[in-house]
Amino acid sequence: MSKTERQQEATRFSFDYLNYLMEQEGVVERMVEKRIRQLEPRLEKLIDQKIEQRIKKLNNK
Predict the structure, then answer these.
(1) Model pTM?
(2) How far apart are CA 57 and CA 60, in angstroms?
(3) Quick one: how many helices (H) and strands (E) in the chain?
(4) How far is the C-alpha of 49 from the C-alpha of 58, rounded, in Å?
(5) Distance from C-alpha of 32 to C-alpha of 36, rounded to nearest angstrom
(6) How far is Cα 2 from Cα 4, in angstroms, rounded to an integer?
(7) What is the pLDDT along the chain (61 residues), one digit of tens a residue?
(8) Handedness of CA 46, 47, 53, 57 (dihedral sign)
(9) Could you give the CA distance from residue 25 to residue 32 in angstroms, rounded to a whole number?
(10) For residues 19 and 14, what is the distance between their CA atoms, to the nearest angstrom?
């Protein structure tokens, strides 16, 4: 295999690996977005509870 062929093969490998990484990034992004959507209602509920607790605590002083 000549130097040029090795360079071309290395370039193809690099592009293939870059494409793989970009696909994986997309997969992870979709997983995170899905998890955030699942957690949002619980987080909002917890935030509301904490706000109510603080208001009650302030009113009792």
Answers:
(1) 0.61
(2) 5
(3) 1, 0
(4) 14
(5) 6
(6) 5
(7) 898 999 999 999 999 999 999 999 999 999 999 999 999 999 999 999 999 999 999 898 7
(8) positive
(9) 10
(10) 9
